């Protein structure tokens, strides 16, 4: 009988996948897809005609949903591509710490303090609005184990009326 120690199994998560397969020809512009291992929003798609060897090819251009970087890929239309699960949630901004972490409150009243002020224009807008004393809603995008604030807007429901 073989030693049991030869068969060690390690699990890192609950087994829930961060992506699901979808046939390339079923993907649509403004949808999401994994390109070069990154979750992207499809901004351009074109299909080439079927060649003498059979498959029509789909050319996709996508923008990384977290960094905004452009990614491209070409895939036979009958092949499957990975599509990321993308969750979008709004949080009310409560505070910004000295080290740049946001204190956000969800709809259920739960607080979270694990996200930083985003880089670029969104971060600048967030700080400007916060410093001006505005009530701010932060839209957080979550996919493939990453989360980032992708948009901010004034929470007009909470604006003080004078």
Automatic annotation (TrEMBL):
Similarity remark: Belongs to the eIF-5A family.
SMART domains xref list: eIF-5a (SM01376)
Function noted in UniProt: Translation factor that promotes translation elongation and termination, particularly upon ribosome stalling at specific amino acid sequence contexts. Binds between the exit (E) and peptidyl (P) site of the ribosome and promotes rescue of stalled ribosome: specifically required for efficient translation of polyproline-containing peptides as well as other motifs that stall the ribosome. Acts as ribosome quality control (RQC) cofactor by joining the RQC complex to facilitate peptidyl transfer during CAT tailing step.
UniProt GO cellular component terms: cytoplasm
CDD domains per UniProt: S1_eIF5A
Domain Translation initiation factor 5A C-terminal: 85-153
Organism: Folsomia candida
GO molecular function: ribosome binding; RNA binding; translation elongation factor activity; translation initiation factor activity
Superkingdom of this protein's organism: Eukaryota
PTM text: eIF-5A seems to be the only eukaryotic protein to have a hypusine residue which is a post-translational modification of a lysine by the addition of a butylamino group.
This protein's name: Eukaryotic translation initiation factor 5A
Annotated compartments: Cytoplasm
Gene Ontology biological process terms, A to Z: positive regulation of translational elongation; positive regulation of translational termination
Principal location class: cytoplasm
UniProt keywords, alphabetically: Cytoplasm, Elongation factor, Hypusine, Initiation factor, Protein biosynthesis, RNA-binding
């Amino acid at each position: 009988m073989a030693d049991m120690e030869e068969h060690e199994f390690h699990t890192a998560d609950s087994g829930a996948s961060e992506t699901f397969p979808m046939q390339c020809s079923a993907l649509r512009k403004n949808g999401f897809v994994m390109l070069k291992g990154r979750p992207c929003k499809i901004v351009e798609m074109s299909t080439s005609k079927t060649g003498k060897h059979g498959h029509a090819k789909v050319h996709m251009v996508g923008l990384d949903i977290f960094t905004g970087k452009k990614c491209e890929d070409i895939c036979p239309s009958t092949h499957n591509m990975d599509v990321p699960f993308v969750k979008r949630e709004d949080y009310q901004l409560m505070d910004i710490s000295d080290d740049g972490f946001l204190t956000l409150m969800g709809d259920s009243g739960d607080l979270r303090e694990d996200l930083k002020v985003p880089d670029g224009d969104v971060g600048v807008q967030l700080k400007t609005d916060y410093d001006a004393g505005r009530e701010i809603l932060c839209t957080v995008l979550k996919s493939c184990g990453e989360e980032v604030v992708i948009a901010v807007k004034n929470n007009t429901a909470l604006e003080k009326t004078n």
